[in-house]
Amino acid sequence: MSGLDESPKDYEEEQSRDSEGTESTATTSRSPDEVAANYAALTDNAPTGIVIIQNDKLVYANPYILRLMGYTEEDVPYLDVWQMIHPEDRERVREHYIARMRGEDSPEQYEFRVVTKTGEVRHVELRATLIQYDGKPAVLDNIIDITDRKRAEQGLSESEQRYRKLVDLSPDAIVVVSEGTIVFVNEAALSIYRASSVDDLIGRKIAEIVPPSRREQFAARMRSVANGQDASLAMEECFIRMDGATFTAEVAAAPIEYEGRPAVLAMIRDITERKKAEEHRRQLKRQLERHKRQFYRDTILSITNGKLDICEPRQINAYVCRAKLRMEVRQPSEVPLVRREAQCYCQQAGLVGERLESFMIGVGEAITNALKHAHGGRVYAGRTAESVWVGVADRGPGISSLILPKATLQRGYSTKPSLGMGYTIMLSVADRILLKTGKRGTTIVLVQNLSNTHQDWTPSDFSLDWNSLFC
């Protein structure tokens, strides 16, 4: 057991010895009873346990320790001090007591467990000192109840172990960065960076595992997160493994305090394979789109006897780049003027009569489509040795591959009211139509031969059921 001060009787004897060789006046001297009473008050009201053990027996215990253990002052002569110590700690505590009584080295302060009268186990901290009690050596112990502290420490330790287990078992790499330096990594981080041990990563600057082109930006992001300014959602970043290979990762970062210093905790997930799979899917989608458009192109070209050609951008650009006439059309009121300018150009190029008039009807439909679907566009015109052409380009949403056959060939089909006859009319009046469409807009070029080689075409020229063929 433990205590902070010597017993009242011991202090009384010390006071008596001191007073024997000292002259004192009547006004300043205190009687032995007064001294004993003062020290008794101190020990009885002490906020810690005070006990004296002599010859393996408990000879004094103050009220604090008696309350802690559940005994009364009358119980003290009958108590076995060693039986009050937890069996697993009993031998160690008794060895310390024996060593101190012999004057041998013994720890002045240590912890152990006691068992109260009711069987409750309490944790205590002891400070011991060797004294003289009734003229014989004894050990004075000062005892502090640390049960609550130990339970808190145990709870904290268990919590720390749980979180440590979660960190160690996390499939994502967890990296803690403080002042730009890596100070902690989990097992997954060793795997993701292909490090042989934590020493390969701990102590390195975080910038060293980021490609040079990204270091400044990444370091700025880490500083921002550490300051609590940019604890945002996950971002993608490129990192360098220990073997020099690079990989793409998804990073989520948040500010924390690590060992008393501000730091950033980053959770890093290798998404290299996912990115490859996504790129592979995009390539397949692009390839499928190309094949689908080629199928539609071949089919539509065949059905229209070569009149309607679904083109690639380079084929359209060959016309647009050589255009001699360029005009903007942004609102319906501009359509008549633009149409007249195009008609004049075609007439000067040698297209006249009914062929000119019917051709301009198709041009008007193309311009109207651009206004209705894309709120305007640009009109081009040019000629070759054998033909004249007019093109209309817009920045609308384009025509989806899934509805392209219907939009161009099915009589009356349209994604907007009143436009269903547009392509039907254009096919009826032009010798050839080139169409490029996509997410960045649609361009249509109507070509009319200068010589009268026009072949009439109507939807009744073919008998395919587009609903069954393309749905």
- Uncertain ranges: 1-9, 11-16, 18-27, 415-420, 457-471
Domains (count): 3
Q: In CATH terms, what is the fold-level topology of the largest domain? A: Heat Shock Protein 90
CATH architecture classification of the largest domain: 2-Layer Sandwich
Would you state the CATH class of the largest domain? Alpha Beta
CATH superfamily of the largest domain: Histidine kinase-like ATPase, C-terminal domain
* Strand count: 16
Number of helices: 14
Strand portion: 25-35%
Order of helices and strands: HHEEHHEEEHEEHHEEEHEHEHHEEHHEEH
Kindly report the oligomeric state of this protein: single chain
Structural class: alpha+beta
Outline = rod-shaped
Structural summary, described in words:
The protein is rod-shaped, with a radius of gyration of 48 Å. The chain has 471 residues and is of the alpha+beta class. Helix 10 packs antiparallel against helix 11 and helix 11 runs antiparallel to helix 13. It has 14 helices and 16 strands. The N terminus and C terminus are likely disordered. It folds into 3 domains: 143 residues, Beta-Lactamase, CATH 3.30.450; 101 residues, PAS domain (Beta-Lactamase, 2-Layer Sandwich); 187 residues, Heat Shock Protein 90.
Give the tags.
471 residues, alpha+beta, Beta-Lactamase, Heat Shock Protein 90, 3 domains, 5-stranded antiparallel beta sheet, 40% helix
Entry summary:
With 471 residues, the protein is of the alpha+beta class.
Secondary structure topology:
Layout: H1 8-20, H2 32-44, E1 49-54, E2 57-61, H3 63-69, H4 87-101, E3 109-115, E4 121-133, E5 136-145, H5 147-169, E6 173-178, E7 181-185, H6 187-192, H7 212-226, E8 235-240, E9 246-258, E10 261-270, H8 272-303, E11 308-310, H9 313-320, E12 325-329, H10 335-349, H11 353-374, E13 377-383, E14 387-394, H12 404-409, H13 422-429, E15 432-438, E16 441-449, H14 466-470
Parallel strand pairs: 11-15
Antiparallel strand pairs: 1-2, 1-5, 3-4, 4-5, 6-7, 6-10, 8-9, 9-10, 12-13, 13-14, 14-16, 15-16
Helix pairs in contact: 1-2, 10-11, 11-13
